[in-house]
Amino acid sequence: MGKYDHLFVRTPRPAELTHYKVPKDIRQSIAWMDSSTHPGSCSFEVIWYYKPLAGPPEHVHDDSCEILGYFGTNPEDPYDLGGEIKYYIDGEEYTITQSCLIFLPKGLPHSPYEVVRVDRPILHFACLPERPFSQLMKAPDLNEKKDK
What we know:
- The chain is mainly β.
- It has a single domain (23-132), classed as Jelly Rolls (Sandwich).
- The chain has one helix and nine strands, in the order βββββββββα.
- The protein has one helix at residues 142-146; strands spanning 27-33, 43-49, 53-54, 66-71, 80-89, 92-98, 100-104, 110-118, 122-128.
- It has a five-stranded antiparallel sheet with strand order 1-2-9-4-7, with no helix packed on it. A four-stranded antiparallel sheet has the order 3-8-5-6, with no helix packed on it.
């Protein structure tokens, strides 16, 4: 035991802070932290996807940008996602088949997403640098969007 052991995170996000429930054989949180677990920390979660699933509905983070990562697990070709994900940003559909990072500025509506195909496990992370993840997502005002 060292004096900095408390800085290592080896636990998933608690069930009571998970905004949607998915069985662990489909999606599994591996490690999670935010300012409630480590004061001053940004929000960060690492997840494995094992089977197809649908993610959360469209939402907005007004208080933080978000950085998403989707990575394939083929050591011979790390750029191959090993599956397919449909992701929506402000209503526009994107198909992800290669390992990537996505930067979502504050206030940009994003999701839903769908993990369409998983040929081998996909590693995913979500980072909100400016806030704790335990804060709830805010759904956009869809009527306001239609007026634009």
